[in-house]
Write a structure and sequence with these properties.
373 residues; mainly alpha; A middle domain of Talin 1; two-stranded antiparallel ribbon; 74% helix; globular; disordered N terminus
Length: 373
């Protein structure tokens, strides 16, 4: 790669997030006209691409699994802000917006991102390998968080409907935060090796950790470049979520005109917000770094629950109205099937393209039933 190419890429990846933020500020008050909405959509797509670029720069500097963790947490923190913002705006579907968005994030990550990563990785490399111990720990954490925060509210009796009482919501928030913190400590300090890319033999069996020094990658970026990319990553993610919010009324109108349930709005917003992680996971899978892809997928699902529920629990002090967290029967069945399939995928420590396709079928089923319940 020539110096001119590097400078050109550097310039546009710096300019686009700033320009997107300018578009966000300029269109925040008035954005109903179609030309403005097209501009917002273009800025949104460009911001997603830039977010992926800067996330990968930071990840290359800090190494795995810190890189995946940074992107997952950065996206989720801003996603939480979007959820709270939309909940405070009132309107139809406010009470179930947090539940529908978090559940959509779980289905997107556990089936969409995992599925496409396994399919692409296995199609290109015949078999993909990962550390079943680390990935299994991540999956069990996601299952526990989802059960405590989304399944149990449908069966408790202290509050009407599919809601938690105040004390139950407080307990769920504290338990979620504690469990998420425990996993992050395990992933980054106590057992970091379990979440690093692995090498494998011809049968896809893990033989050890991948030698990152011999993979043909460029040298890590300098400290200055990494700091700049970290700042621009935040700017790009703010732009992604803000621009997604501007498009949400148009999405709501489109959903209503098509006769789809309001929950589809949460699905579309979750797809937009999780786009940077999806692209990054896909790139890692193509480079035979499926462990990084799974770190992103399970880490994003975990952060989506473990950070959202505590924040919503605190925000309910100021937000009027009920908070419906309990899943509907169809959603619980989809979650149960996903848990079983994910367990069968993870336990082997290797996967074929078929397993990726199975997850994608589940993801397609989720999308279809969201539109046609």
């Amino acid at each position: 790669m020539t110096a001119t190419t590097i400078r050109g890429r550097f310039q546009w990846t710096v300019a686009v997030p700033i320009a997107a933020l300018v578009v966000l500020a300029a269109t925040w008050a008035t954005h109903e006209a179609w030309p403005v909405l097209v501009l917002v959509a273009v800025a949104l797509v460009a911001s997603v691409v830039c977010a992926v670029h800067h996330a990968e720069v930071v990840a290359h500097k800090v190494g795995e699994p810190f890189g995946s963790l940074i992107l997952a947490v950065a996206v989720t923190v801003i996603e939480v802000g979007l959820i709270v913002m939309l909940m405070t705006s009132g309107g139809e579907g406010t009470s179930t917006y947090a539940r529908d968005t978090v559940f959509a994030a779980i289905m997107i990550t556990l089936n969409g991102i995992v599925g496409i990563s396994l399919l692409v990785g296995a199609a290109k490399h015949h078999l993909v390998s990962f550390n079943a111990a680390g990935t299994g720990a991540a999956l069990s954490t996601v299952i526990t968080l989802a059960s405590v925060c989304l399944v149990l509210p449908s069966f408790t009796t202290s509050a009407p409907g599919r809601e938690y009482s105040v004390s139950q919501l407080a307990f769920a928030g504290v338990a979620s935060l504690a469990l998420y913190g425990a996993f992050v400590f395990t992933q980054t300090i106590r057992h970091r090796d379990f979440f690093l890319p692995v090498s494998s033999d011809e049968q896809g069996l893990m033989t050890g950790l991948l030698d990152e020094d011999e993979d043909g990658h460029a040298d890590p970026p300098s400290d200055q470049e990494a700091r700049l990319s970290a700042g621009l990553l935040v700017v790009a993610l703010v732009a992604v979520v803000g621009l997604a919010k501007l498009l949400s009324p148009t999405i709501e109108d489109g959903v209503e005109s098509l006769g789809f349930p309001y929950a589809v709005v949460g699905v579309v917003i979750a797809l937009l917000v999780l786009a940077p992680e999806s692209i990054s996971a896909l790139r890692n899978a193509a480079r035979d770094r499926v462990q990084n892809s799974l770190n992103l997928a399970f880490g994003s699902a975990m952060a989506s629950i473990g950070l959202t529920i505590p924040t919503i629990a605190v925000a309910m002090i100021w937000i009027d109205g009920p908070l419906t967290l309990g899943l509907e029967p169809t959603q619980m069945v989809l979650l149960a099937i996903t848990v079983v399939v994910s367990g069968l995928t993870v336990v082997q420590g290797r996967a074929k393209a078929l397993q990726g396709f199975v997850h994608l079928v589940l993801f397609a089923t989720f999308l279809f039933l969201s539109m046609q319940p």
